[in-house]
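Quiz preparation item.
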């Protein structure tokens, strides 16, 4: 009687009783899904399929690349922000100025003390709340750029970047 129950148990489980077979089926299904998703969803969005069909990879023209300038670092600047007198707040910022070429970069480098002073004076009027939001940081960047652009010859500055900003 025990043999009869044992054979009935094996018959009920069938092919799914063997864990190795079930694991193999799961792996195959996942691989097919991954390949299918890659071929039909990801590759068309990347545009890789068209280049592979032509057999030639076409490089993008250099004219579409934005013109990159030379970066001049103003180094770390630390200022005290306008705040409650009981809890002074400080800002440490590192600004890079983008200029069109190396010659202008050397001119800007000779003017670093003036540019740093301009940034310090601009930041000293700010509160932590003024620069805590993304809009506030963008407004600060625009204000610093505008004030620096007034001090430099026209067309000297391309952009400014904050490479470090910490409010304490």
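Solution:
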């Amino acid at each position: 009687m025990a043999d009869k129950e044992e054979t009935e148990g094996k018959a009920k489980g069938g092919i799914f009783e063997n864990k190795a077979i079930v694991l193999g089926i799961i792996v195959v299904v996942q691989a097919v899904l991954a390949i299918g998703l890659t071929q039909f969803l990801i590759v068309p969005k990347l545009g890789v399929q068209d280049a592979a069909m032509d057999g030639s990879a076409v490089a993008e023209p250099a004219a579409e690349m934005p013109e990159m300038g030379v970066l001049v670092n103003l180094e770390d600047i630390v200022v005290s922000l306008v705040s409650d007198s009981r809890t002074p707040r400080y800002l440490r910022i590192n600004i890079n100025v983008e200029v069109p070429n190396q010659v202008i970069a050397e001119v800007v480098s000779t003017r670093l003390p003036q540019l740093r002073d301009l940034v310090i004076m601009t930041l000293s009027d700010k509160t932590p709340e003024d620069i805590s939001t993304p809009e506030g940081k963008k407004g600060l960047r625009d204000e610093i750029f505008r004030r620096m652009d007034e001090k430099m010859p026209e067309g000297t500055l391309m952009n400014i970047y904050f490479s470090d900003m910490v409010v304490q």
